[in-house]
Amino acid sequence: MSSPSAIALITGMHFEKVVADKAVAGSGIKTYIAGPGAKNGRQAVQQAARYGAKLIVSFGVCGGLDPDLKCGNVIIPRKILLDEGATSITTDEASVSMLSQLVEQQFYVKNGDMLCTGKAVTQTGDKARLFNATKAVAVDMESGFLALEAERVNLPFAVMRVVHDTADQPIPPALASISNDDGQINPFGLIIALIRHWPGLAVLKRLANNDAIARDIMASLARILSGNDDKK
Question: In this predicted model, what pLDDT tens digit does every residue of 215-224 receive, in sequence order?
Answer without folding.
Answer: 999 999 999 9
